[in-house]
C-alpha cells in the first residue's frame, strides 16, 4: 500500500533509504542486549569488569563448566524442559478440544464458558499464587513437576483455546461432515481429520505455550523450593545475589542457557509464531 | 445462515444416535477445560476470598475464624500498599503509551520495502522470547554504574555515568526501559500484521487526491488503525498489570520502595512475612480493580471504533 511502501514520487528513494536505515538501527539496538549477554558469558572473570568494556577477548567456557556442575543447573534445566514440555502438551490437548468445541460442536452454554475462560486473562497470577501454594502444601504437592504443569494451564489453556478456536473456524466445514457421514465418530473426525490438517497451527501454538511455561517465574518461585525449581528461579536467585556479590559471570551463562534454545526454536517456527501471535492478539 | 444449512447433514446423523450419548460426546470436548478452570482458577479465587475475610492460622496453615472486613481495613490503612499501588500506576502510565506508540512507529520503520525486511521482522522476535527475569538480570548488568556498557557510552557523550539503581526516578526509568525493550517487539508484531492488512485502494485514492505523507498518515492510516491500536493497548494492559519478573530481577523494588510494584509487595507480604490474610485481601482488591479497568478499557476501545 502506498503509505507502507511508497518509494516513488515526493518522498522518493531517499526517504525510503532513511526508513530502512532507521529500521536497521532500531533492530541493532533491540538485539544488542542479548548479544552482549551471550558475549559476556564467554569472558574470563577479568575481562568482564573492565572500563571501557571489552569487545575482543580470548573466549572461555570457564563460567559454563563451573555453573553447570555447581548450582545444580543441569537439574534445573531438566526440570524446565519437563515442565515446559508437559504444560505444552497438556494445555494443547485440553485447550484445542475446547477450542474445537467453541468453533464447531454446537453445545448450549459452551460460549458462556468460553467467554468466562477468556475473561480469566484478566486475573492477576498473584491472586492465584496464595491459594495454590496453600492447597499444594496441604495435598503434599509442592515441589513437583505436575503442580507447575497444572498451575501453568491456568494461563495456557485459555490462550490455546482462543487461538485454536479461530484456527478451526477458518477450516472448511465439509471436512468433518464428510468424515462423519462416512461413519467417523466425533472423536474420529476430530483426531483423524481435523488434527492432522491443523498440525502446523497446533505445533506453533504448542511451541508458544512451551516458551511461556519455560520463562514463567511467579508460580515457580511459590510452588517449588528444591527438586522441581526451574531456570527462571535460578536466575532470580543469582540476580538477587548480585546485590552483594555481582556474580555477572553466572548470570550471563545461566541467562544464555535459558534464552538460546528458545530463540532457536522461535526462529525455526517464526512464520507460524508471527501469524499465531498476530491472530491471537487481533482476533482475541 | 450458511451455518444452519451446513449443519443439516451432521444433525441428520446425530438423530440416529441416542440423544444423551451424543450430548455427552459433545460436552466431552469442552469438559476437560471447564473442570480444569473450575479447579485451578475459580476455586483458588474463592479460596483467596475466604482467606481475605478470615484470620489466618499459621498452625493449621489455612483460613481460621471469620473476621469480616478486618483484613481489608488493615490493608486500606497500610501506606505501603498504597505506595506500591502508586508505583504500579506510574509504571503503567509511562510504559503503556510509550510501548504502543513506539511499537507502531518501529513497525512502520522495519516494514520499509527492501530485501532484508523479512529478516528484520524475524529478528524482532528475539527480545520477545527472552524470559523477563533474564531480561531484568541482563539489563541490570548493562545499566551498572561502574561496569555497565550503557553508562560507558553515556559517559562518552558526556551524559553519565548515571546511577540507574541508586536514584528513585532513574530506577523507575530503568524498569520502564527494560519492560519497553522486552514488550515493544510484541506490539511491533501485531502492528506489522495490522499495517499489512490495510486496504491498498484507500491509499491510492489519497495519493490521487494529492494528500502528502503526513496527511495520509493522520487522516487515512491512523483512523484505519485505531481499532488495532486500541486492542493492542488492552492486550498490553493485561500483560503489564502482571508486572513482577523484571522488577524482581532488576531492582527488587529498590531503591527503597521506588520500584516496588503491587505484585511484588503482595508476594513479599505473603511468602516472606507470611501475612497471608492481608496478602489475600490485597490480591482481591487488585483483582477487582483489574477487572473493572479492563471492562472500562474494552468499552472504551469499542467506543473509539465507533467514532472512526
Automatic annotation (TrEMBL), chain B:
Q: Which GO terms describe its biological process?
A: transmembrane transport
Q: Does the keyword Membrane apply?
A: yes
Topology class, membrane = Multi-pass membrane protein
Q: Where in the cell is it found?
A: Cell membrane
Q: Where's the ABC transmembrane type-1 domain?
A: 85-297
Cellular component aspect of the GO annotation:
plasma membrane
Please give the CDD domains that the UniProt record associates with this protein.
TM_PBP2 (cd06261)
PROSITE patterns, sorted: ABC_TM1
Which residue windows are transmembrane per the record?
23-46, 89-110, 122-143, 149-166, 173-197, 217-239, 246-267, 279-298
List the InterPro entries hit by this protein, alphabetically. MalF_N, MetI-like, MetI-like_sf
| Keyword vocabulary terms for this entry | Cell membrane, Membrane, Transmembrane, Transmembrane helix, Transport
- Thylakoid among keywords: no
Q: Which Pfam families does the record associate with it? A: BPD_transp_1 (PF00528)
Q: What is the similarity comment for this entry?
A: Belongs to the binding-protein-dependent transport system permease family.
Q: Which PANTHER family match?
A: BLR7065 PROTEIN, SPERMIDINE_PUTRESCINE TRANSPORT SYSTEM PERMEASE PROTEIN
Protein's name in the database: Binding-protein-dependent transport system inner membrane protein
- Source organism of this protein record: Seohaeicola zhoushanensis
From the broadest rank down, the organism's phylogenetic lineage runs: Bacteria, Pseudomonadati, Pseudomonadota, Alphaproteobacteria, Rhodobacterales
